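Archive entry. Fields below.
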Amino acid sequence: MPDGLLLLGGGIAAGVFGSLLGLGGGILIVPLLTLGFGLPLIKAVGVSLVCVIMTSGAAAGVYLERRVANLRLGMTLELFTAIGALVGGLIAFLLPEHLLELIFTGLLVYTAATMARRREPAPPAPEDAPAGGGEPAAVEPAASSFQETLSGPGYRIHRLGWGLVGSVVAGLASALLGIGGGLVKVPTMHAIMGVPLRVATATSNLMIGITASASAIIYLIRGGIDPFVAAPTAIGVFIGASVGSRTAHRIRLGVLRGLFVAILLYTAWQMLQRAFA
Amino acid sequence: MTRAVVDAGADPSGTRLEQSIARVLTSGSYAAIALLAVGFALMLASGIGPLAGGPRFDPAAIPGDLLALRPTGFLWLGLIVVVATPASRVLAALIGYARRGERRMVTVAALILLVIALSVVVATRLEG
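PREDICTED_STRUCTURE:
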């Protein structure tokens, strides 16, 4: 089979898995391209950023139309994810590849541990997400009038400063590893800032575009994105994510999650070996 | 009730803004996927292998490649649309918030666009 169709198929698989399990495609695409197709990590990260922007764009549109995402909060935080991504995009070209591979191995293990511990269902697909911002959070006086304007129906924003710090970290991680950064943004918004989980997931999805594009521009101009690899992979991920979001309600996610944890750990082992090769 | 609660709950201008931003995101995504799909089809038709190593990004060559129906023209244009769509969404938000007189959100949107512009400038200088 031609490599182009293999990349398309790999992208579809990554899109389906990522969508079913509530992850961006990046965590799967980078290992697919490095371990499966032998691409240098920096090029795999560049392609992954393109895929992440593609999948988040369509989903974020649906989240906004259904009024699940908090636009004001998302825009405020994404100013800081963009700053982190700009810095990360510049650092990425300076760091040795084996160091990035080691960091990515850590990310895979962390994600596997997070998935193994997760008990609640995966974040809802845009089609299933309810409007109105989810369950109400505890109501406390806001620290500033600006912070107050970022709150949504039934919840108030707390600890905005920590949210901004978390956003910079998410932007750095996104630029260095080719991920959307939801692994940092969603816990920051939900556990620290008091944003309901559904709103945090949708708002994180909205922010992915700007987060990833700030560094994707650097990858694009500096030769870190190969268009021949990016096109079939991005098309595949887009198709896979669409299929996954429509079939999520028919799949037993418990079994799938167990399988996915095993795949992540195996991939982490392969990536570790590559880092020390 | 805070202003944000009003905006997120019942304000029709807030709904319109979010809907217009959603349209920018959705149409950008579909335009990008269409361009990439045409480029990929031309790649397959030309017998180009994806792992052979693609060309460097050269914006000046895109119009000529498009006119000659070369895959690289469609692929680069598709990738530009991909990375430009989120910035277009921020621009739409900036215009929407400006119409509503929300200076702080206009400032936030302008700063985001400034960071994106800085990415372009810094990357171009490093390559030059």
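CURATOR_NOTE: Confidence is low (pLDDT under 50) at residues 121-142 of chain A.
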